[in-house]
Amino acid sequence: MHLSRFPRVKLTQAPTPLQPLARLTALLGGPNLYIKRDDNTGLALGGNKTRKLEFLIGEALARKATHIVTQGAVQSNHVRQTVAAAALHGLKATVLLEERVAEADAIYRENGNVLLDQIFGASIEYRPAGLDMNQELVAVGERLRAAGEEPYLIPGGGSNPVGALGYVESAQELIAQANDRQLRIDHVVHATGSAGTQAGLVVGLEGNNAQIPVLGISVRAPREKQEENVARLAQATWELLGIRGDFPREAVEANADYVGGGYGVPTEGMLEAVQLLARTEGILLDPVYSGKGFAGLLDLIRKGRFRKDENVVFVHTGGAVGLFAYQPVLARHAAQAAQAS
Ligand SMILES: *Cc1c(COP(=O)(O)O)cnc(C)c1O
């Protein structure tokens, strides 16, 4: 797919490594696990939003924008990477943080991603949970325009067809890495939220006829809704690219069994996954996305969803900055594990 016909800035240190998880694979007795290190994209402590922002900031600059406006949860990794990318390109940034996680403590509200948003110089506004956040974005954009700015609005998670191009690129990068080392990839698994990552991956893999199924582990929405969101965005991305034929809707598969109490609410499985990957492979997951995604992968492995000789790639989408916002629950879990051993 010819992605360089879209406006783009370089933000990602790519290709990100594709690494075997040898110790964890041995511990579990298969399948063969690999991890695609999109937590190491290189901008502002990394993560999947950096790839989307290459195309989003590219379009903003092409439109002569002066001011980036976006939104997310208080601990949004997307917001952190967006304000860093804006700083790098001399654009102002206003961000709307939705108080989506009930009963958040002071650490959640002040540390982790939100601290970094402050360091990057973003104007931060808060919104209570339950508003139409995209409508809020439009209203702030109008306010900025009236004040003489040229706003560029980025939806939550950077998930529109332009942002999803970043994951079409990632899919192509993954295929190239697999071909280079003669690795047959049987499954790709990752955490799915605002749907842009999964939509881009599926379009990139299907558009290249890679025949690699993708499973998104939902961190918020129920399965049907998540699949619908991914499919709608994938269809629009397919059309933006002008790929012939219809987007294969059946390539979209999500699993919402690992959301637990809701978006950003810790689960036992997440706590176990974070600790296990750290202690076997020295790799940090995050409490909101990749920790739940990996918890889902571990549970599905234990339930025999994959053959022992299959090669499974987990796309690590980043987010470890969020660990610092969840210090009390993570520290408690580590202390309990120490006591039990
Ligand atoms: C945003 C995010 C995701 C989910 O990606 P979407 O494109 O929003 O589905 C997964 N992991 C991390 C760490 C994220 O920040």
Automatic annotation (TrEMBL):
Molecular function via GO: D-cysteine desulfhydrase activity
Keywords: Lyase, Pyridoxal phosphate
Species this protein is from: Corticibacter populi
Annotated InterPro entries: ACCD_DCysDesulf (IPR027278), D-Cys_desShydrase (IPR005966), TrpB-like_PALP (IPR001926), TrpB-like_PALP_sf (IPR036052)
Family the entry assigns: Belongs to the ACC deaminase/D-cysteine desulfhydrase family.
Pfam families: PALP
Keyword match Disulfide bond: no
Name of this chain's protein: D-cysteine desulfhydrase
Ranges of residues in domain Tryptophan synthase beta chain-like PALP: 11-318
PANTHER family noted in UniProt: 1-AMINOCYCLOPROPANE-1-CARBOXYLATE DEAMINASE-RELATED (PTHR43780:SF2)
Major enzyme class: lyase
Catalytic site: S76
Modified residues (N6-(pyridoxal phosphate)lysine): K49
Necessary cofactors: pyridoxal 5'-phosphate
